[in-house]
Design a protein that fits this description.
Number of helices: 14
Distance between the termini: 50 Å
Strand content: under 5%
CATH architecture of the largest domain: Alpha Horseshoe
Largest sheet: none
CATH class of the largest domain: Mainly Alpha
Structural class: mainly alpha
Helix content: 55-70%
CATH topology of the largest domain: Serine Threonine Protein Phosphatase 5, Tetratricopeptide repeat
Shape: globular
Length: 224
């Protein structure tokens, strides 16, 4: 929408755009306006729940990365689960970079994890890499404590994606699982159930974590 685009353009920082372009290799530089996240969040807060925001959320796909970032923040702040889930499903196919994927974390999902768990398998089964990464992240964000089930580890362990950002998402998930559910997770490494790249990257990320003990890190290094 032109009104949203104008609001974003007024917040543009060209130097920051150049910096962002280096972090987003999957996007052409001309698709990045260069809006800092505090400014995106402030704009989202200003328009949340307005007709302007609702119309913007319906107009997909967006042209610019920064519009997708604003979209992700608006959805993350939506407090109606059914509305939020429907809009997340509509948005996921258009996510084209890791930053937007990782920004999209609806707070309301925490109150509906049982329902969320019914959606995650379909995301993991998607042919769209960032939808798969999003599904992995939802398991990591909401299902590694109270709602943890060891079977969820197998959901991710059986994925075979060549895309870097999916594999990195899986390694991030397993490293976090080692921090929160060590006894349930370490057998996957002992039994070599992950692909070789994800196996190595999981151990690397786990050994970089302050949440894993020195003794556990020593053992994990022996599994490389």
């Amino acid at each position: 929408m032109q009104e949203i685009y104008t609001k974003l353009l007024n917040l543009q920082d060209l130097g920051y755009r150049d910096f962002q372009a280096g972090l987003l290799p999957t996007l052409p530089k001309e698709k990045i306006l260069g809006i800092r996240m505090p400014a995106v969040r402030k704009l989202a807060k200003e328009i949340q729940g307005t007709a302007l925001a609702e119309n913007f959320l319906q107009e997909l796909p967006h042209e610019y990365y920064d519009e997708n970032q604003l979209h992700a923040v608006l959805l993350s702040n939506c407090m109606d689960y059914k509305v939020c889930m429907a809009q997340v499903k509509a948005f996921l196919p258009y996510i084209d970079n890791w930053a937007t994927c990782d920004l999209l974390t609806p707070k309301i999902f925490k109150e509906h994890v049982d329902e969320l768990l019914q959606e995650i398998p379909a995301w993991l089964d998607s042919e769209h890499g960032y939808t798969v990464r999003f599904g992995i992240r939802m398991l990591m964000e909401f299902c590694l404590e109270k709602h943890f089930n060891p079977a969820q580890l197998q959901w991710v362990a059986t994925l075979r994606f060549e895309e870097y950002y999916v594999r990195m998402g899986a390694a991030w998930y397993f490293a976090t699982a080692l921090a929160k559910q060590y006894d349930a997770t370490v057998p996957l490494l002992e039994q070599r159930l992950l692909d070789a790249w994800t196996h190595r990257k999981t151990i690397q990320k786990a050994c970089e974590s302050y949440r894993i003990t020195a003794e556990q890190k020593q053992y994990l290094r022996s599994l490389r």
